[in-house]
Specification:
By secondary structure, the protein is α+β, with helices and mostly antiparallel strands. This is Prolyl oligopeptidase family protein.
Length: 791
């Protein structure tokens, strides 16, 4: 059913052995701050930076349960993103960021960081094979793929006819190229569509089953509100008018209709499809421009959007809608879900107006569905069956269920993928991912149990795998693989033969050799004795493991999201400079099963933060680094993690990066007019209840900034971010500037033309990595002179 939303396109197998390096016992002096080196703070002051911006203070009192909070920077929130005073302040912060990162170029040493940042960007860009083609995917008589071009930010969507399309797919198939091959047909060039735009992103690209049409969704602001276009593949001619104000969830219902999802504040059924509130209406009625996806629609091609049929409207604020096609393409599934509950409707694409209940709404029960032959396959999770079970039921009698894979306390059933004769199951055990495949009885025969599962083998000790769309009628499972030292790879696995064939591995230029890097997994003891996994990678010939190496520790720990060890070519710029990179797989994530998540949410959320601190202390104790060499990073909810641990243990870290951080937790969770708030109560708790209010207040980063020394800090935001409002990191930075007692640098960069996921171009995104890495190396006094960096 492929429930994974974000595919990292990762993985590959290496044949090299592992280098067992001796552990050096570090002296006590290496664990403490060095007094002999010139501090980075001193060097910062030498650069004669201008004074940082000072946000004005406007008292805003909030009182609940007899507790009064004063937020002097509440005024920085502007839902319209157009207030001149707010925009002027954000620009001041951006100007200060540029000034700080530029330094004094006349010194041309540690202070001329802008040139070094530019060199870093060139280095990151230089690893990318700019002209490349993705692994082709077979659909019907065509191979579909994307192509990238020299110097271009975006992809081209292409296809080629398959000469011998009657032969069944094989793991050894290759797409013909060259003068005698069928010609390449360009369907859509995103570079052309993106011309003149500061942001451009295609959220979905769906080819109709008859291979004649394509529907694609584009976002031109970064606010994740899309416009859907349908075009004729051969001619590029538009089919009907575009669908406006929708999400990226779009599926074909046959070849002549689409099903799509909209936001409830954008497309109200009582206002008519396509209705958008005016700016005056938004301000007058306090309308949030982006709310939750809660309406499912049926659109007949070339019909006006105002005549579309509303299939389902979810009116409970805690729930949102998801849309998915079965692998068989015969059914569509519309799921209404909260953080703890998920129930499913289905429609037959041959009769798309009829939406039926497959699994009922039962609070605390999470279900997902797919289809093959005369059966629906359903994964079901509950409080008792916390790691999920797999059921099957006849299409014509959905109440008659058979357990195919029972619940197991030590194995989490994460996803399934169906084929005409096979089933692939994605699982997690001991924090590691697994794929097990089963051969199914012929369609029409009784389906009572699964037998003789085959496991796909991986060589790296820690790795990341993701499902990929596969040909339903074949025996070929496609998946993505990578590890901390293995570039993103695409494999085709023959489920009968049990063999994997590499179809594509990302080319990394610049002399990269996977054998130069060592990866391992260690376990830190949390304060309650729980063992926390840490995935580690470093370059073998550069690290000493005596406490003198710089280290970047990354964390997330929320929403049951698994922070798996995947490859990132940009990260090589740290590893090749002697950094160790580590991922703390802390509670609140899903790496060790559902209970791992449950023990890091609600009134146990602080486990997430203390787990991260325990991982940091483990790395210091075992001589991977010292406090003076330890940097930390987190994004979004991972930014909350960084904010919390900075308040709790600022002495433990030298530098921190909080990207689009969710740091104003209590204020946001108390305001149901803010997008996503109501749906988040099942993740963080509802602070309108006293117990949650005071617990949340005890860790919310903005509420816990205090007069103390903090390390060097870099914070980022996106003005159009619909997930974490730009005002949260802005307020966090303003309060830090007011309260902190050190001279360490604090930088804030707000992308004024982007959203939660930063800039949209493949090279533009590297700029963020370039200035982040430059910031970290500057904080650690690792920047060379401009001349030596260029050489």
């Amino acid at each position: 059913m492929l429930r994974s939303v974000f595919c990292k396109h990762t993985l590959l197998i290496s044949t090299s052995g592992w280098l067992n390096l001796p552990r050096v016992i570090c002296s006590s002096s290496s664990l403490s701050s060095s007094d002999s080196k010139t501090s980075t703070a001193t060097m910062m002051s030498q650069s004669k930076l201008p004074s940082p911006p000072v946000a004005k203070k406007v008292e805003h009192k909030m009182e609940l349960f007899g507790d009064v909070r004063v937020d002097n920077y509440y005024w920085l929130r502007d839902d319209s993103r157009s207030d001149p005073e707010v925009l002027a302040y954000l620009k001041q912060e951006n100007d200060y960021f540029e000034s700080a990162m530029s330094g004094d170029e006349m010194l041309e040493t540690l202070l001329g960081t802008k040139k070094i940042e530019d060199n870093m960007f060139a280095e990151l860009k230089g690893r990318i094979k700019q002209e490349d083609v993705s692994a082709p995917f077979r659909q019907g008589s065509y191979y579909y793929y994307t192509r990238t071009l020299e110097g271009k930010e975006y992809v081209q969507h292409c296809r080629r006819l398959i000469h011998n399309n009657e032969a069944p797919p094989s793991v050894h198939d290759t797409m013909e190229t060259g003068p005698d091959a069928p010609p390449e047909h360009l369907i859509l060039d995103e570079n052309v569509k993106a011309e003149g735009r500061g942001f451009y992103s295609v959220g979905c690209f769906q080819v109709s089953l008859d291979n004649k049409l394509v529907a694609y969704a584009e976002d031109t602001k970064g606010d994740e509100i899309y416009t859907v276009y349908v075009i004729d593949i051969e001619t590029g001619t538009p089919v009907g008018k575009p669908l406006v104000g929708v999400t990226a969830s779009v599926e074909w219902a046959g070849n002549e209709a689409l099903v799509y999802i909209t936001m409830d504040e954008i497309l109200r059924p009582d206002k008519g499809v396509g209705w958008l509130p005016s700016k005056d209406d938004q301000l007058k009625n306090n309308i949030s421009y982006l709310k939750i996806a809660r309406l499912a629609w049926l659109h007949k091609l070339e019909a006006d959007q105002s005549n579309d049929i509303c299939l389902y409207h979810e009116k409970d604020d805690i729930y949102s809608l998801g849309l998915q096609a079965s692998e068989s393409k015969k059914f569509l599934f519309i799921a209404s879900e909260s953080k703890i509950t998920r129930f499913v409707f289905y429609l037959d694409v041959s009769k798309p107006e009829e939406l039926r209940v497959l699994t009922p709404r039962v609070v605390g029960v999470d279900t997902a569905a797919s289809h093959r032959g005369n059966h629906f396959f359903i994964t079901r999770r509950s409080d008792e069956l916390f790691n999920s079970e797999l059921l099957a039921c006849p299409v014509d009698n959905t109440s008659e269920t058979t357990v195919l894979i029972p619940h197991r306390e030590s194995v989490k059933l994460q996803d399934i993928q169906l084929f005409i004769d096979h089933l692939a199951v994605y699982e997690r055990e001991g924090g590691l991912q697994k794929i097990t495949t089963y051969r199914l009885p012929a369609v029409g025969e009784p389906l009572k149990s699964l037998q003789g599962g085959k496991s796909v083998e991986f060589i790296d000790p820690v790795y990341s795998i993701d499902p990929s769309e596969s040909v339903f009628s074949s025996r070929i499972l496609r998946f993505h693989y990578s590890s901390l030292r293995t570039p993103p790879s695409v494999y085709d696995y023959d489920m009968d033969m049990g063999i994997s064939v590499l179809k594509k591995i990302e080319t990394v230029l610049g002399g990269f050799d996977t054998n130069n890097y060592f990866t391992e997994r260690k376990w830190a003891s949390a304060s309650d004795g729980t063992q926390i996994p840490i995935c580690i990678v470093y370059r073998k010939n550069l690290v000493k493991l005596d406490g003198s190496d710089p280290l970047l520790l990354y964390g997330y720990g929320s929403y049951e999201i698994c922070n798996d060890p995947a490859f990132n070519s940009s990260r090589l710029s740290l590893l090749d400079r002697g950094f160790i990179f580590a991922i703390a797989q802390i509670r609140g994530g899903g790496e060790l099963g559902r209970q791992w998540y449950e023990n890091g949410k609600f009134l146990k959320k602080k486990n997430t933060f203390t787990d991260f601190i325990a991982c940091a202390e483990y790395l210091i104790k075992n001589c991977y680094c010292t406090k003076e060499k330890l940097c930390i990073e987190g994004r979004s909810a991972g930014g909350l993690l960084i904010g919390a641990v900075l308040n709790m243990r600022p002495d433990l870290f030298k530098a921190a990066v909080a990207a689009v951080p969710f740091v104003d937790v209590l204020t946001t969770m108390l305001d149901p007019t803010i997008p996503l708030t109501t749906a988040e109560w099942e993740e963080w708790g509802d602070p309108r209840k006293e117990e949650f209010y005071f617990y949340m207040k005890s860790y919310s980063p903005v509420d816990n900034v205090k007069a103390q020394n903090y390390p060097h800090i870099l914070v980022t935001a996106g003005l159009n971010d619909p997930r974490v409002m730009y005002s949260e990191p802005a307020k966090f930075v303003a309060k830090l500037r007011e309260m902190k007692t050190d001279d360490n640098i604090l930088l804030f960069k707000c992308e004024l033309g982007a959203g939660h996921f930063s800039k949209s171009g493949r090279f533009e995104r590297l700029r963020e990595a370039a200035f982040t890495y430059t910031f970290l190396m500057r904080a650690l006094s690792m920047l060379p002179s401009v001349g030596s960096e260029q050489s």
